[in-house]
From TrEMBL:
The keyword Lyase applies. This is Sirohydrochlorin cobaltochelatase. Transmembrane segments: none annotated. The keyword Metal-binding applies. PANTHER family: SIROHYDROCHLORIN FERROCHELATASE, CHLOROPLASTIC (PTHR33542:SF3). InterPro entries: CbiX-like (IPR002762), Sirohydro_Cobaltochel/CbiX (IPR050963). It comes from Halorarum halophilum. The lineage of its organism: Archaea, Methanobacteriati, Methanobacteriota, Stenosarchaea group, Halobacteria. GO terms for molecular function: lyase activity; metal ion binding. One of its GO terms (biological process) is cobalamin biosynthetic process. Keywords: Cobalamin biosynthesis, Cobalt, Lyase, Metal-binding. It holds the Pfam family CbiX.
Length: 293
């Protein structure tokens, strides 16, 4: 039986960068040959969530949401737009972090849909956060002498958003790789504005737990942290902020390794992905810098 993967995301009418990571990750997965079909669908772009299953020929489809946390879109909007017959969020049996997969028939197309939890709460997303640190510093062994900050919205928008931030911060901390690890927020304490107060290390990698670069990651966070007074003038990487060197990595969702999380979600749903996970981990690996002469 043919296998199809559909990656669903928010998209934007205003920001063309919003959908770019989703397209890139779809291309990466398509190149592995793990699926007969790989499609993308969006809330704010074409093809729409309501139409995307009609672009798929396979009778069995794995759907992976390109979202950071469980919430309104993953629990209400996407199941409604895909017309999942009898959708009930309790079938995920989730505590706000543990949504895995639930299988339904799509009333519009008759396809069997294996609807997965969002990429942002999967355990392997922790590896992508660390990979962002490796990418922004150019050092595959970065850790010793560095602090690490994971940044998210906070509970005022979605309490599960904060759960995801804390979950991954705890997992990075448990690696015992970085000298200090903190979860910071835009909308609540501890605030990213006060980043220097939470670190003693001179070097700090700052990784926003967002799917795509947009208003918050390109404008708000750089100005709030003090990387620049005006985001339009740009900033250095690393940037000097109150005695620290801040290595700002931009949205975690732009890291090529995120394709691996999509694949792992699909595999958890029963898809046969073969060696695709290992292949993606290898092809997206950060190269070791050449030694100085």
């Amino acid at each position: 039986m043919s296998q199809a993967l559909v990656i669903v995301a928010h998209g934007s009418h205003l920001n063309p960068d919003s959908s770019a990571p989703t397209f890139r990750h779809a291309d990466t997965i398509r190149a592995t040959g793990a699926f007969d079909e790989v499609r993308t669908g969006f809330w704010k772009e074409e093809p729409s969530l309501r139409e995307v299953l009609r672009t798929v020929e396979a009778e069995e489809v794995v759907v992976v949401p390109m979202f950071i946390s469980e919430g309104y879109f993953t629990e209400q909007v996407i199941p409604r737009e895909l017309r999942l017959d009898g959708w009930d969020v309790t079938d995920w049996d989730s505590d706000g972090l543990s949504a895995d997969v639930a299988t339904y028939a799509a009333t519009d197309t008759g396809q069997t849909v294996h609807y997965c939890g969002p990429v942002g709460t999967h355990g392997s997303m922790t590896d992508v956060l660390v990979r962002r640190a490796e990418s922004v510093t150019g050092d595959p062994d970065v850790g010793e002498g560095f602090g690490f900050a994971v940044v998210g919205h906070g509970t005022e928008r979605n309490e599960n958003s904060a759960k995801a931030i804390e979950y991954h911060a705890d997992r990075v901390r448990d690696m015992d790789r970085f000298d200090e690890v903190e979860a910071l927020y835009m909308d609540e304490e501890p605030e990213v504005d006060d980043l220097p107060d939470y670190f003693e290390t001179e070097d700090v990698v700052l990784v926003p737990l967002f799917v795509a670069d947009g208003f918050h990651t390109q404008e708000d966070i750089p100005e709030d942290v003090g990387l620049t007074d005006d985001y339009r003038t740009g900033y250095d990487v690393p940037a000097a902020v109150e005695g620290h060197r801040v290595w700002y990595a931009g949205a975690v969702g732009t890291e090529p390794l995120l394709a691996d999380v999509v694949l792992e979600r699909a595999a958890d749903a029963g898809a046969d992905v073969g060696s695709a996970v290992e292949d993606v981990r290898e092809t997206t690996r950060v190269a070791t810098p050449e030694a100085d002469d």
